[in-house]
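Q: Here's a chain of 511 amino acids. Please give me its 3D structure as tokens.
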Amino acid sequence: MLEQLDLTKKISKGEYKKVFPDIAKRLGELQREVKELGIPVLLVFEGWEAAGKGTIMNELILPLDPRGYEVRNYHTDLPGDAYYPPFWRPWRWTPAKGRILICNRSWYKGLIGFPPLFPLDKELPRTAMDDIASFERTLAEGGTLILKFFFHISEKEQRRRLKKMRQHSSTAWRASKEFFDEKDRYEKLLVRVEEVLPRTDAGHAPWIIVESHDRRYAAVKVLESVLLKMEEAVRNRKAFMEMAGDLPELSEKEELSKSLSVPTVLQKVDLSQFLHKEEYQKELRKWQKRFRTAQYGLYRERIPMVIAFEGWDAAGKGGCIRRLVQKLDPRGYEVVPVGAPNDVEKAHHYLWRFWENFPKAGHVTVFDRTWYGRVLVERVENLCLPREWRRAYGEINSMESQWAGYGTVIVKFWLHIDQDEQLRRFQARQEDPYKQWKITDEDWRNREKWPLYEEAVEEMLWRTNTHWAPWTVVEARDKYFARIKVLQTAARAAEKALEEKEKSLSENKGE
């Protein structure tokens, strides 16, 4: 495909001076519109070494207000990245609403950059493409405008430019000796590029090939492409805002059909289970010790662990979390309370703040409330559109799949009680001066919507219970029983991960 491109395309200096001012002026106007409408813009610059990415990038940002964009240089060999999943950094970099992020290289560098992360003579792992597709689709469906540019030059032109760089002291450092030493490097990498670009080209995240022999032609093509796509994004956002209130939702019949398709889980939970205090204290010491031992093992083997807590108000999440971490080494865990998003978090995709708090390899992060708020409170309280929370099931499963693929131990708890027990606990809190802070008007309002929340919980458990991130429903009417079940589940999950790691190492040694 790339070899067939016409790399002789040029624009004269006179023509360039004629068209550039109009393009630059319109880009400045669009930047302001994008900011007002809250559209995040993500521009990816990939291509051959010495293809002129930096020069064209400079042409692009000249008309822009520097307070509204950011340029980031992407490296695949940052020391800290080894302790996090591959898309931890891309997620943390995602642009906020109304801002423009320009990436000099990106998550594609390990695939089509030099040196490649995966050997050029071997097939790319399927998960590499799947993770990219999931990341870009999730951002695009959340409203981000994504444009990806590949700057193409011939091998002959690349060598000419690299040779010229080496002749000048100010640019010699950019022309690494590796580029000249490896025989057939360009041809091998070209095969990989021809594989990756078509497989990652999508309507929501298209690749634009830039013929880059002529700087002026390349600059105009990039700027015009950005201009046209930003205009389209602005039109679409305005049209959506005008018609959002008139979009049809599911009919009552369709809603009934949908709810019937979701199996019920909570109605079958046996809430009569309990532990006597003496047995509880004995089991508490035993399982806290086992979990602490497992924590040391996780740190030694650099295995991260994510523990997610959801449940009814007053179900006992705080008490379970306190006993869960009570005997752990405090240097190796963090408890993250999740409430309503702040202004910074609202400006990003709803998953952004959870990637921000992902544990370093070997550490444990406990989330008190989680990303499942999208399909629970945001769904019930109409804080997001139905199409958004329905889409969230797949987005969440994909995120957890990426975490699990990195080796993360994921444990998810739903703490379950019935309405009568919740009422008893609410009233007890109101009567106890030391616990009144735990009960709010919002708790009572949520209680009135119990049937709606129950429906949302049932669907959440059904659609996001995966083998890589299964749900554990905890019978929480008896607090002693709930705390021990949580500890047992977490400790056993960590121990299982350590056993599998040891088995894998043994098998590798045997080979």
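Q: Can you summarize the key feature?
A: The mean pLDDT is 92.
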